[in-house]
């Protein structure tokens, strides 16, 4: 298979109203598979969160990453996603999350590090237009001289690559440290070590409203690669809702790595 280019694909934008964490997890699986099978054009999806959550990676140990009692006390939902990488603490209004669903041909022949850098390049350019000295930091971070801005994760399945990024717009660091067991080793055989990383939110670096940062991100993607406004289909939503109930909300999935 030869590598495709951004301009070979008619990119679509989905930016729906706030949705529950479990539905976001399910939409990632549903839309990745839809793009891989050709039922959907490659898509950029901007997430809106309806509730605070901790999202752990596919291979992370639940008990090593999350203080369950603290999460319940703070009414924070704990979810496991289908991609690897580390735990993310997200709050409505304080987090910017997006997913790219692309044919695997776009990153054909690339190492994971090369693919992360390649798929992050557009958002790094968007941040630089806002005056942030953003750069890619291997393996899966976006950082600046002021601190870490974002973490990315990927999954490749059924002919598609899922690349999603969680960015700190603002953050309740005290609450985050209560629910995340940062710095403890995981039981995962993948051996991905947790690390304490200084986070410097976009709000303090730009002074802009969250919506304005998202608007610049979308405008930059549109300028670089083209982007047509789109929406979730009823079939996609139905599939995702079923997955949310029967997979992502179940303790069997969340604790698949105990």
Distinctive features:
22% strand; alpha/beta; 258 residues; BirA Bifunctional Protein, domain 2; three-stranded mixed β-sheet; single chain; 9 helices; globular
Reading the helices and strands in chain order gives EHEEHHEEEHEEEEHHHEHH
Instruction: State the domain count.
Output: 1
- Any guess at the CATH architecture? 2-Layer Sandwich
Low-confidence runs of at least 5 consecutive residues: 183-197
Distance between the termini: 38 Å
Strand order of the largest sheet: 7-8-9-10-6-2-1-11
Strand content: 15-25%
* β-strand number: 11
Please give the largest β-sheet: 8 strands, mixed
Q: How many helices in DSSP terms?
A: 9
Report the CATH superfamily: Bira Bifunctional Protein, Domain 2
Radius of gyration in whole Å, from Cα?
17 Å
The overall pLDDT average reads: 92
Shape label: globular
Q: Can you tell me the CATH topology?
A: BirA Bifunctional Protein, domain 2
Characterise this structure.
The structure is a single chain. The chain is α/β, with parallel strands linked by helices and 258 residues long. It has a single domain (6-244), classed as Bira Bifunctional Protein, Domain 2 (BirA Bifunctional Protein, domain 2). The chain has helices spanning 21-37, 62-65, 68-73, 112-129, 173-179, 202-206, 210-225, 234-248, 251-254, and strands at residues 12-15, 43-47, 53-56, 77-80, 88-90, 95-103, 135-137, 141-144, 147-157, 160-168, 228-229. Strands 7-8-9-10-6-2-1-11 form an eight-stranded mixed sheet, with helices on both faces. The protein has a three-stranded mixed sheet with strand order 4-3-5. α1 packs across α8 and α4 packs across α7 (210-225). The longest helix is centred in the middle third of the chain and has 18 residues, at 112-129. It starts with 11 loop residues before the first strand and ends with a helix.
